C-alpha cells in the first residue's frame, strides 16, 4: 500500500510540473499539487467566485430605463441625450486608434481649449514634498485585491515619495488575497452600491460602506517585505453616526479613545504617528464605517476602490453632499476609471447607451471633485474560445471605441489599455507570458505590475510635455 501511495504521489508531482496550459492552448489548465497548501505562492490565485464577470443590477436597470420611458419627463430626457449623442457622433474623434510615441501608447488629452495634460495633477505633484497628492483608482474585479493599483502606487511613491496603502474598507470577503496590507475583521457587514436599496443614500466614491453589528473590529498590518508599505504616518477612520458611543484605535502609537456623537456629517478620527499595525474597534451597533486611510504626510497616495461586478454606472447616484464633505478631508487630484468589462457580452456590439450613462458618471464626479483630473481607461483585451482556439472578444474593440468617444464628449483624458497590451489577440500573448489568469479576463499579479508600468510611463510622458 505504501508503494502504491508513493507511486501515485510521484505521478501527481510529475503531472503538476507539466505546463499544460501552454502546451494545449489552455484546453487543459496547469495543475499544482500544493496550490491549496501554499496559495500565496501563485500569482494566478484568485477568489473562487471570481472566475467570471458578474452582472451589475444597475446596468440592467439603466438599459431598461433607456429602452422604455416610464414618464413624459423620462421620455424627454432620453430624447435629449439621444440628440446629444447624435451631435457628438458628428464630431470626429481626434484619435480612432491609440497614438504611440516612442513605443509608448500615449494618453489622449480631450480637455477643452487645448489645455495641457493633467493640469491639476501636475500642479499637485509640484507640492508633493509638503502635502499628500491623492489618486483614486475606481474599478471592478480587474483591480480587486489592489492588483495593478498597488504597482501604480509603488511607481508614484518611488518617484515622488509617500508611504502606506491609503484607503482600505473595513471588511473583505477575501482578506488574504490582497497582499499590500494584511487585514482581519469581525462584526462588520459590507454594503456595496450595486445592490443597495434605493433609499440608501450612503453612496461615496468607494461605492461601499460597512455597518457594525454589536462589537466590530478590524486590524490592519503593514507588509514588512515592502519598505513603503511596512509602516505609515497617519491613520484616519471615517464614520457616520446616528448615536453616541466610543471608538478605540490602537497600534504602535498606543491606544486612543474617541467619543463619537450623532451627526449627519462624516467624522474623521485621526491618530498621528508612525505605525506598522492599527486596530480599530467599537461597540456601537449600527455605526457606519466609510473606510480607513493609512497614509504618509507627504508624497503620493493611490487609493484602490474596487467593487466586483461594478459596471461603473452606479456612480451616477453617489451622494453629492456626502462626497463633498469627504472631499474636504480627502481631496483627489486624479480619478482613474477602470470599468467596462462587466458591460461586455459576446452577443452585443453597440454600447452607445453605456457610453451615455458613463458620461453622466463623469459629470457627477466632476461636480463633486472639481479639483481632480479624470482619466478613463479603455477595457483590456478579453479572450473567448472559438472552435477550440482563444481569440479576442469582438465586443472589446466596440467598447473601447465607445469609451474613447465618451472621454472625448466629456472632455477628459483617455488611455487605450487594450492597445497598450498589443491590440487584437494580445490577451493570448499575455496569457502565454503568464501575465493573465486562465479566464482570459483578469490580470495576475505580474500582469498587474506590467500594466501599471505601461500606464505610469504614459502618465509620466504626459506630465513632461
Strand content: 25-35%
Secondary structural class? alpha+beta
What portion of residues is helical?
25-40%
**Overall pLDDT:** 88
First-last Cα distance: 71 Å
3D shape: globular
- What CATH first level of the largest domain would be assigned? Alpha Beta
Number of strands: 19
What is the number of helices?
12
The CATH homology group name of the largest domain: SGNH hydrolase
Number of domains: 2
Overall description:
There is one protein chain. By secondary structure, this protein is α+β, with helices and mostly antiparallel strands. The protein has two domains: 57-162 and 298-465, Rossmann fold; 164-297, Jelly Rolls. The protein is 31% helix and 27% strand. It has twelve helices and 19 strands. It has helices at residues 2-16, 20-23, 57-67, 72-90, 119-125, 149-160, 320-329, 352-368, 394-410, 417-421, 426-432, 445-463; strands at 100-101, 104-105, 108-109, 132-139, 166-168, 181-192, 208-222, 232-241, 245-251, 254-260, 263-275, 277-282, 288-295, 299-306, 334-338, 373-377, 383-386, 389-392, 413-415. The strands form four sheets. Strands 5, 6, 7, 8, 9, 10, 11, 12 and 13 form a nine-stranded antiparallel beta sheet that branches. A six-stranded mixed beta sheet has the order 3-19-16-15-4-14, sandwiched between helices. A two-stranded antiparallel ribbon has the order 1-2. It is globular, with a radius of gyration of 23 Å. The model is unreliable at 21-29, 35-43, 49-53, 68-79 and 85-90 (pLDDT under 50).
Amino acid at each position: 500500500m505504501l508503494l502504491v501511495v508513493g507511486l501515485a504521489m510521484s505521478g501527481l508531482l510529475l503531472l503538476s510540473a507539466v505546463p499544460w496550459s501552454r502546451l494545449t492552448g489552455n484546453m487543459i489548465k496547469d495543475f499544482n499539487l500544493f496550490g491549496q497548501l501554499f496559495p500565496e505562492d501563485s500569482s494566478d490565485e484568485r477568489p473562487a467566485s471570481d472566475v467570471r464577470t458578474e452582472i451589475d443590477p444597475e446596468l440592467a436597470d439603466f438599459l431598461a430605463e433607456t429602452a422604455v420611458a416610464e414618464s413624459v419627463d423620462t421620455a424627454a430626457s432620453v430624447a435629449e441625450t439621444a440628440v446629444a449623442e447624435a451631435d457628438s457622433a458628428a464630431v470626429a474623434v481626434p484619435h480612432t486608434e491609440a497614438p504611440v510615441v516612442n513605443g509608448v501608447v500615449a494618453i489622449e488629452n480631450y480637455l477643452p481649449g487645448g489645455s495641457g495634460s493633467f493640469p491639476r495633477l501636475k500642479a499637485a505633484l509640484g507640492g508633493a514634498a509638503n502635502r499628500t497628492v491623492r489618486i483614486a483608482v475606481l474599478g471592478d474585479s480587474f483591480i480587486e485585491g489592489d492588483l495593478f493599483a498597488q504597482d501604480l502606487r509603488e511607481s508614484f511613491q518611488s518617484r515622488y515619495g509617500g508611504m502606506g496603502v491609503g484607503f482600505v474598507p473595513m471588511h473583505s470577503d477575501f482578506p488574504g488575497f490582497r497582499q499590500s496590507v494584511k487585514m482581519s475583521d469581525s462584526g462588520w457587514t459590507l454594503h456595496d452600491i450595486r445592490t443597495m436599496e434605493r433609499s440608501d443614500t450612503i453612496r461615496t466614491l468607494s461605492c461601499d460602506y460597512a455597518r457594525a453589528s454589536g462589537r466590530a473590529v478590524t486590524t490592519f498590518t503593514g507588509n514588512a517585505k515592502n519598505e513603503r508599505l511596512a509602516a505609515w504616518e497617519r491613520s484616519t477612520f471615517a464614520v457616520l453616526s446616528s448615536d453616541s458611543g466610543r471608538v478605540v484605535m490602537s497600534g504602535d502609537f498606543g491606544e486612543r479613545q474617541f467619543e463619537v456623537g450623532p451627526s449627519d456629517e462624516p467624522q474623521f478620527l485621526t491618530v498621528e504617528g508612525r505605525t506598522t499595525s492599527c486596530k480599530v474597534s467599537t461597540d456601537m451597533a449600527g455605526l457606519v464605517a466609510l473606510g480607513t486611510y493609512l497614509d504618509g504626510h507627504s508624497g503620493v497616495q493611490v487609493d484602490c476602490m474596487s467593487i466586483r461586478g461594478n459596471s461603473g454606472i452606479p456612480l451616477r447616484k453617489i451622494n453629492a453632499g456626502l462626497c463633498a464633505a469627504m472631499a474636504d478631508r480627502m481631496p483627489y487630484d486624479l480619478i482613474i476609471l477602470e470599468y467596462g468589462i462587466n458591460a461586455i457580452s459576446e452577443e452585443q456590439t453597440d454600447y452607445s447607451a453605456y457610453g451615455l450613462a458613463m458620461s453622466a458618471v463623469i459629470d457627477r464626479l466632476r461636480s463633486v471633485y472639481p479639483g481632480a483630473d479624470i482619466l478613463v481607461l479603455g477595457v483590456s483585451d478579453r479572450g473567448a474560445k472559438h472552435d477550440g482556439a482563444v481569440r479576442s472578444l469582438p465586443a472589446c474593440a466596440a467598447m473601447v471605441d465607445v469609451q474613447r468617444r465618451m472621454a472625448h464628449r466629456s472632455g477628459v483624458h483617455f488611455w487605450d489599455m487594450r492597445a497598450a497590451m498589443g491590440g487584437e489577440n494580445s490577451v493570448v500573448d499575455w496569457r502565454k507570458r503568464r501575465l493573465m489568469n486562465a479566464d482570459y479576463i483578469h490580470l495576475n499579479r505580474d500582469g498587474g505590475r506590467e500594466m501599471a508600468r505601461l500606464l505610469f510611463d504614459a502618465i509620466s510622458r504626459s506630465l513632461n510635455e
